[in-house]
Amino acid sequence: MNFQRLSCLLALVSLSVVGLEDCKANIITSNITNGSVELSINPLNSFTTAALTSLNATAWESWSFTSVSNASNAGATVIFYRDPTLIPPSLYEYLTIYKCDNITTGLWTGDLGNATFEVKGQDVKVQLDMRSILNGEVTGSFNIQSSTPLVSSAIDMSPYLTWGPGILAPNTTSNVTIADRAIQFHDGLGAADHLIAPYNWISIAEKWWWTRSVIGPYTLVYWELVSAIDHQTHTITYLSQDGAMLFHSRTKCADSNTVQTDCVAFQLSYLAGTYGSYDDKSTGYEIQLHGKEKRWSFEVRHELVEYESKDSQFVLSPIALDYEYSRFVDEVYGGEMGCEVRRGVGRSEQNRVRNGSPVL
Q1: Do 81 and 97 contact (CB within 8 A), yes or no?
Q2: Domain named Diels-Alderase C-terminal: which ranges (predicted)?
């Protein structure tokens, strides 16, 4: 299959924006603080609210923006990190979040190039101009637009990990060029998320599987994570139809034949198809949602590998080598059980931490 591929793990910018002087600024510099730092986590904070005011050796937050074509043949991801364990502090000078009324602007300042994101209401714009990350030139933009409200509250996904699912599954367009290779589509699935933690991934997680899909009128989000802190499995599921929430659960069913309600049955698929380079050779997921009155079933099939942590040109810190991380562009089939089976597209990821160092 011919496909186009992009995964930019670092966004660095030149600070040259006019009109932000009167805005509230949260500025992080490249200086690392010895000892603890303040980490502001409030479940009522919006997805755009910054948690950090300075960096130390472990605390981090990130804003990620993704875009997947409806043809499931292209995907783009840009992550704005405030995380010294994944990006060397010497690569940037300032990582700034400006808040002005209902507009939030992120500006990453460094020698590698320019990157900004802007969140205005339900619209997200990401602009890129990065030089040197991939031994080539990365430029372009993609826009994310949603007809459904931003998710206003942050979620305690697992011990020491907070997730702000700001935009669950909006429409998106992409116009990105990497080393003169264009990744362009005008009809796709996008998303925006905010993650916050006082410790790095190898200290708080053992493994996880995560997927976000749009299938006809349905939007499905599922995340299953095994914590390195309590060694328990933590899950969260959202299912909406035409923007209205149908199903929400944090409980995993015993199996797909369970009579239990308000739970989700999740299992890996091993069919002919695409899989990652690591020990996890699953080709997708089977997900069943058990409501009180209805059930829904979805089959996630990996179509192409968008990114893996073994790709040395993306590794900016040795800690990244401790991950068996794969990210996929997917085709997804399903709907309400007993009704029409619909086709959709999605994005998923899987990861296992090889050499974890739990904090407790």
Answers
A1: no
A2: 200-351
User: The whole model's pTM is what?
Assistant: 0.87
Query: Helix (H) and strand (E) counts for the chain?
Result: 1, 22
Express each pLDDT in 235-282 by its tens digit: 999 998 987 889 999 999 987 777 788 999 999 999 999 999 999 999
| φ/ψ of residue 59, rounded to 5 | -70, 145
Distance CA 138, CA 77 (A): 13
Whether the Cβ atoms of residue 80 and residue 92 lie closer than 8 Å to each other: no
Decide: residue 33, CB within 10 A, 0-12 exposed, 13-18 middle, 19+ buried. middle
Dist CA 329 CA 72 (whole Å)? 6
- 306 C-beta neighbours (distance < 10 Å), count: 25
User: Is there a contact between 204 and 228 (Cβ–Cβ < 8 Å)?
Assistant: yes
User: Which of 255, 357, 348, 262 lies closest to 308 in space, CA to CA?
Assistant: 348
Backbone angles phi, psi at 322, to 5 degrees: -85, 0
Q: Answer whether 77's CB lies under 8 Å from 7's CB.
A: yes
Q: What's the chain's length in residues?
A: 360
Contact 279, 270 (CB under 8 A): no
82, 187, 295 from 114: Cα distances, Å: 16, 25, 46
The pLDDT value recorded for residue 8 is 38
Quote the distance between the C-alpha of residue 110 and its chain's center.
23
Q: What are the CA-CA distances from residue 259 to residues 9, 40, 256, 265, 335 (Å)?
A: 42, 41, 9, 11, 19
15 Cβ neighbours under 8 A, 6+ residues apart: 94, 96, 107, 109
